[in-house]
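Holo prediction. Input below; ligand is N-oxalylglycine.
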Amino acid sequence: MANSAIPLSLTSKFILPEDKRPQLAQISSLASVPVIDLNDNGNKNGHYLLVQKISQACEDYGFFQIINHGVPQEVCDRMMSAITDFFELPPEERAEFVTEDHTKQVKVFHYNLKVEGQEKVSMWSETFSHPWHRGEDLAHLLPKNPPKYREAFGEYAKEVRTLITSLFSLISEALGLEKDFLQKRLGDPPTLRTQANYYPPCPNPDLTLGLAIHTDPQALTVVQQSAGVTGLQVLKDGEWVAVDPIPNAFVINLGDQMQVLSNGRFKSVHHRAVTNKTQLRVSSAMFYAPNLDTVIGPIEDLIDEVEHPPIYRSYRYAEFLQEWFRQEGKRRMVKELFQLPK
Ligand code: OGA
Ligand code: NI
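Structure of the complex:
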């Protein structure tokens, strides 16, 4: 049986070749991801300003943090605690979920990076991924242990779903569209998956990564991360920017589908997770993606022949995902394949 626990020693399977190491000394301290207060009703232009801030953040960073988001702190804390407990159970307890088969609905695995001329390199993290659609059929797929997982997840998913509806409404407005446009456009039911990431302290964070550089292939991601433990970094103008781990905030980022739908105006930005020597870091990412049959392409109202010609061709979301899985272990270039010739 595969043992998925990370050893405390940094064996060669985790060590990246020199040109792929994180260069931790070179993190930019100049920029930082915008922090947006969702309850900023201080003046009568509050809503208009909020939409402006979201629009700017989606264009410049593809990332922002939100505070006063309305999800009760206890619900967030219970989710993070259930995730931490899940990964801290003896490895036998999650062995039934350990797999390298990406078609499995519920799975525990390590991400890895293919490196030319050597064995693939494992990331210094363990990942647990499963769907989060509504309905009674979900709970029984989820772990029985820790006992609180199912309930904590159910509550959390309900809250995050409501939050995502508000976010899509704001992002639709930011694009000058009707509030319900994006959620409708993504199709029903959407493809909903979650990924919990567990990053134990690492003896030498310079030699490895928690998660390699990637963009999220979905439409929107809601991330909760351990308060006060840095690790998530975002690429901005060619430099890595650390996302400040603000307590009680969510990190929101746009996925590839939003870049295509907005015809490149909003960005799906490269990001990664780095490790640290002393502190455990845990994150929960809730992904919202189109229905597998939804045809994704630049939104009609955002294109014209002269100034905003479409830069992507249309495709079924299932087609995009198939290509995404085909590029497993590589620095993926998926949306680039759907680019139209200039
Ligand atoms: C992800 C991701 C970042 C983090 O799960 O796609 O980018 O902070 N996670 O763990
Ligand atoms: Ni990501």
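The CA atoms of residues 243 and 288 lie 21 Å apart. That is the main takeaway for now.
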